[in-house]
Amino acid sequence: MSPDVKAFFDTTTNTVSYIVKDPQGTACAIIDSVLDFDHASGRTDTASADAIIGHVQSHGLQLQWVLESHVHADHLSAAPYLQEKLGGQIGIGDQITTVQDTFGKVFNEGTKFQRDGSQFDRLFSDGDSFHIGQMRADVMHTPGHTPACMTYVIGDAAFVGDTLFMPDFGTARCDFPGGSAHDLYQSIQRILSLPDDTRIFVGHDYKAPGREEFAWETTVGAQKARNVHIGQDRAEEQFVQMREARDATLGMPKLILPSLQVNMRAGNMPEPDEQGDVMLKLPVNKI
């Protein structure tokens, strides 16, 4: 089965969110949504999420799932807002507990912050499956960028999050806590073992030098043949050496500190203080 896919590109964070629809009905899922956040003012906005909601409502779709490919470090998730407006269950990989444990310590969250993934409606394990209407989706654990990264294989389409980018841009960084270039290499090999005509939908695009347009859809065959980091059967040690050297030159994403605090809570803000104000922490020299 070939799902209907509608992409929404957020120019502020270069994130691609997707509506994935059962072609034989109205059921759909949303993957990797964005809550707009202005770092300078600390203000949120729902314009990006509202565009997705508008599409769902105007086309008479029924939202069944709000899926996260991982705990994003570059944008805040709009999952709770989408669920409030449209329903559906919020799902992520079961290794979210590892991420919660790691960053619960970084942000000194204390015992009130649950580290069991209970903020989410469904925790997926490698090999799990679920349905979007009559359409089956299979879950593949693809760690490396983070310990909790998942690829959702839905019909002839694979939603890989940040694991792979477009072939001319390469692969995800692996230098966040819990990341591993060795794990990423093995995860990518699993994705590339899918049929060559499998459509791959990436989580971000930054327009590689020489390319004029943003893009987010490619294929397994194109990745195997042309990915600048992993294509042409690049050996694991060669890939790991390249990836670790490249990662050492990269700065942290602008929104990493607010994003992690919110996204490890399934897109919810921390509990308000006694005055009803929500505060995000800014740990110094911890990441």
Describe the structure.
It is a single chain. The protein is α/β, with parallel strands linked by helices and 287 residues long. The chain has a single domain (4-263), classed as Ribonuclease Z/Hydroxyacylglutathione hydrolase-like (Metallo-beta-lactamase, Chain A), CATH 3.60.15. Helices cover 24% and strands 22% of the residues. The protein contains seven helices and 14 strands. The strands form three sheets. The chain has a six-stranded mixed sheet, with helices on one face. Strands 9-10-11-12-13-14 form a six-stranded mixed sheet. Strands 4-5 form a two-stranded antiparallel sheet. Helix 4 (181-192) links the parallel strand 12 and strand 13. Helix 1 packs parallel to helix 2 (79-86). The mean pLDDT is 97.
Key terms:
287 residues, alpha/beta, Metallo-beta-lactamase, Chain A, six-stranded mixed beta sheet, 7 helices
Beta-strand residue fraction = 15-25%
Distance N terminus to C terminus? 42 Å
Computed over alpha carbons, the radius of gyration is 18 Å
> What strand line-up does the widest sheet have?
1-2-3-6-7-8
The figure for the number of domains is: 1
Major sheet details = 6 strands, mixed
What's the arrangement of secondary structure elements?
Blueprint: E1 4-10, E2 15-21, E3 27-31, E4 36-38, E5 43-45, H1 47-58, E6 62-67, H2 79-86, E7 89-93, H3 96-106, E8 122-124, E9 129-132, E10 135-141, E11 150-154, E12 157-159, H4 181-192, E13 199-201, E14 217-219, H5 220-226, H6 236-247, H7 256-263
Parallel strand pairs: 3-6, 6-7, 7-8, 12-13
Antiparallel strand pairs: 1-2, 2-3, 4-5, 9-10, 10-11, 11-12, 13-14
Helix pairs in contact: 1-2, 4-6
